[in-house]
Amino acid sequence: MNILKKLTLLLAILLIVSGSDCLAQGANRGSSDTEKALKTFINQFAAAYSNLPKSKNKADVLKYFDREATSTRFVFNIKGQAAVTTGNFAKFEGYLNHIIRANGIELHYNVSDIAVTYLDAEIATLAYKVNYETKEENGIWVKGLETVTMALEKSGSSWKIVHWNMMQVEDEKLKGTCLCELYLSEADDGEVVAKTTIPSGKTYTTRFDNFVFRTSGSGKVIRVGNYVYKHKPSGPLYVIQDGEEIEIAIAKSKKEIVLAIIEHSLYADSCARLKTTSNE
To answer: From edge to edge, which strands make up the β-sheet containing 227-231?
Structure first.
C-alpha cells in the first residue's frame, strides 16, 4: 500500500472515530440539557406551591400535572402514627382550594437533592427531598422531611407529572399545655362557655367555645359549633361522626364532659395537658 493510500485510510478512520465521539457528546449533551430542564421544572413547581397562599392561583400549581395524575402519600406523624392515602388530580385540586380559602397560612417547600433516575424521549422518573414547614396564624404548625418520587411524561414540548409518591415524616408539631377557663351554669341543661388558650406555633391562640347541653332520654346531647356529642349517665362520652358514635372519654360531671371534649376532640392535636380554672 503506497503512502497516499495509507494517509487516505488513516484520515477515514479518524473521521469515523471523530464522528462517533461527536454523536456521543451530542447525545450526552442532550440528556444533560433535559435533566437540567427537569430539575428546573421541579424547582418552579415548588416555588409556585409555596407561593399559593399569596398568589391564590391554583392554576400556577396544577399546570405541572396531567389531569389523570395519581398519587400515594405516606405520613408518619409526631404522635408516632402512620397513615397511607391515595389521591388524584381532583383531590389535589381540592387540597389547593383549602389552602387558598384558609387565612394566615404560609408554606415553605424547600427542595434539595433532585436526581433524575430514568430518562428517555417520552418518560422520566426522578426523586428529591423536601424540608417543609407550614405556618398558620404566625406560628409554626408543622414541619418535617419529605421524600418524593415522580413519574413524568412528555406532553408536546413540556413535561407533566403523571404520578407522585410522598413519604412524609413530621419533625415538629407544637403541642403542649393548654389553659382552659370555664364559665359554668348551675342549671342542669345550662350552657357552658370555655376559654381555651392553645399552642399555635411560636405564639398562643385563644378560642371561645359554647357548649349547649340538652337532655335526651336518660343522657345528654352536647353541641359545640358543628360538633355533636352524646353522654350516657354511666360515664361514656361519644362524638357523633357520620352517624356513628365514637367513644372519646369517660366523664361523670358537666365539667369533666367539657374538659374531655376540649382535650380529646376539639383540640386533641394541640393539647397534651390541660390546666383549668372555673367560674361557677
So the answer is: 244-250, 236-241, 227-231, 219-224, 203-216, 192-200, 176-183, 271-279
C-alpha cell at 76: 408518619
Strand, helix or coil for residue 27: helix
Question: Would you give the DSSP letter of residue 63?
Answer: T
Q: Which stretch of DSSP H or E encloses residue 172?
A: strand 158-172
This prediction has a pTM of 0.55
Dist CA 122 CA 258 (whole Å): 59
> What gap in Å lies between CA 278 and CA 280, rounded to an integer?
6
- Domain range summary for the chain, segments of one domain joined by +: 23-172, 176-279
State the number of CA atoms in the 13 A half-sphere of 226 facing the CB: 2
Phi, psi of 201 (to 5 degrees): 70, -130
CB atoms within 10 A of CB 239: 20
Tens digit of each residue's pLDDT (9 = 90 or more) over 226-238: 999 999 999 999 9
CB contact at 8 A, 274 and 177: yes
**Would you say domain 23-172 falls under CATH 3.10.450.50?**
yes
CB 99 within 8 Å of CB 53: yes
Span 32-78, pLDDT tens digits: 889 999 999 999 999 999 999 999 999 999 999 999 999 999 988 66
